[in-house]
Amino acid sequence: MERRTTQPRPGWQQTVEEQGIVFPLTRYPDGSLRPYWDESAYYVFSLPEVEALEEVVEELHAMCLAAAANIVAKDRFAELGITDRRLAGLIAQSWHRRAELPSLYGRFDLRYDGTGPAKMLEYNADTPTSLVEAASAQWFWMEDRFPGADQWNSLHERLVDAWRRQAALLPPGPLHFAHSDGDELGEDLMTVAYLRETAEQAGIETEALSVERIGWDRLSGRFVDERLRFIRSCFKLYPWEWLATDRFGPHVLDTLDNGGGSGTTCWIEPAWKMLLSNKALLAILWELYPGHPNLLASYLDGPRDLAAGTGDGPGPGYVAKPLLGREGAGVTVHGPGSPAVLSDEPCCYQELALLPDFDGNRVVLGAWVVEDEAAGLGIRESAGPVTDEYARFLPHVIL
Predict the structure, then answer these.
(1) Which residues of 62-74 are buried (b: 16+ CB within 10 A; e: fewer)?
(2) Fewer CB atoms < 10 Å away: N or C end of the chain?
(3) SS3 state at 351
(4) What whole-number distance in Å separates Cα of residue 198 and Cα of residue 157?
């Protein structure tokens, strides 16, 4: 793994916009605009390195499924902050019937610097973004700059194949694709539009709308779109914890399709994905696989031996992560020797593993899974220790 600088392509902004990246620049708090898509540098990997990472990702995915099974079997929903017994029961039912429910993709965030084992930071298996950049734009960048080279990137083909395989699980009618109007940057819209395109390439009839424009027909007891058609299936880039708890949440639960019959809505990702996108998963993984080389020590009741004065030494430091959250929101970093500080909200306390520093840039690998297989890589850089909304996306190549 190596970071190399290069000259951006002439007209790069227009090029990537035409490829679906609707926000190639990010506005910072001081009002300045800086590239989100950053091709002034790129990362180089060797083929054996990528093959080893693929094996790690698929092993981690299998471990996460085992952890989900443990949560359901031992009724550990409260540890995830899921205290509504009805919701817990529906998630469990969704898990038991997962073979009957469409489920598409997820993204692992990994700490890796090319020298030691990759470490799992978290798993977003419900609403992962940065997909268009990884699947499309960086592939075309490689073809322009390194024709004949390779890339860890079979995302597009795998997504189309996944839709094709799972089409039989969908109820009749169009598959709706929903994003939120609250997405000011356009990232969610961009991701949903791309996934809709992959579904259409698989031969699936689709329809687009925003979550806020989904209607409720009181007479039929069904969700409807703007043309008053029943929404029998819907891919939503809208977190389950919002979908299940907003004012329409009771209707969502009343009509949830867990592989059942008519009168229901099949949501993609399915409800059981809530088990994998909750940071409590990290602590349960550490409990089930203590000392695993690709995991970081994680706890729910406090930082334990990660903090000063609670173990034999000063403690390696820890990161407190809210159980639910995106783009690093609410994450606090406590360096080596820090005292134990408990958060006011439920958190996972994970061993501190500072992101690798490449020329002053903190890098995190986003490793994609489609169905149950490793499918590609996206790389983001940030200036600070937490990958936040100001992170930049950089392409990569296998040389």
Answers:
(1) ebbbebbeebbee
(2) C
(3) strand
(4) 9
Q: How far is CA 193 from CA 101, 131, 327, in A?
A: 22, 11, 21
Q: pLDDT tens across 79-114, in order?
A: 999 999 999 999 999 999 999 999 999 999 999 999
Could you tell me if 318 and 301 are in contact, meaning their C-beta atoms sit under 8 angstroms apart? no
User: How far is residue 311's CA from residue 99's CA, in Å, rounded to a whole number?
Assistant: 44
Distance separating alpha carbons of residues 169 and 62, to the nearest angstrom: 22
The alpha-helical segments, DSSP class H, found in 110-186 are 131-132, 138-145, 155-166
Nearest to 381 by CA among 88, 34, 36: 36
- Among 80, 99, 102, smallest CA distance to 235 is for 102
What's the token pair of residue 144? 């322009």
Residue with tokens 């620049």, as numbered in its chain: 25
Q: Is the model's pTM score more than 0.85?
A: yes
Contact 24, 37 (CB under 8 A): yes
**Using CA atoms in the order 111, 193, 244, 228, what is the torsion angle rounded to 10 degrees?**
180
Pairing type for strands 233-236 and 175-179 reads: parallel
pLDDT at 311 over 70: no
**What CA–CA distance (Å, rounded) separates 20 from 332?**
33
Contact 109, 366 (CB under 8 A): yes
> Concatenated DSSP letters for 291-329?
T-TT---EESS--GGGSTTSSSSS---EEEEESS-STTT
Helices (H) and strands (E) in the chain, counts: 10, 21
How would you classify residue 341: left for phi > 0, otherwise alpha for psi between -120 and 50, otherwise beta? beta
What is the C-alpha separation between 107 and 360, in angstroms, rounded? 25
Distance in Å from the first CA to the final CA of the chain: 10
User: Running DSSP on this structure, what letter comes out for residue 366?
Assistant: E
**Cβ–Cβ under 8 Å, residues 265 and 257:** yes
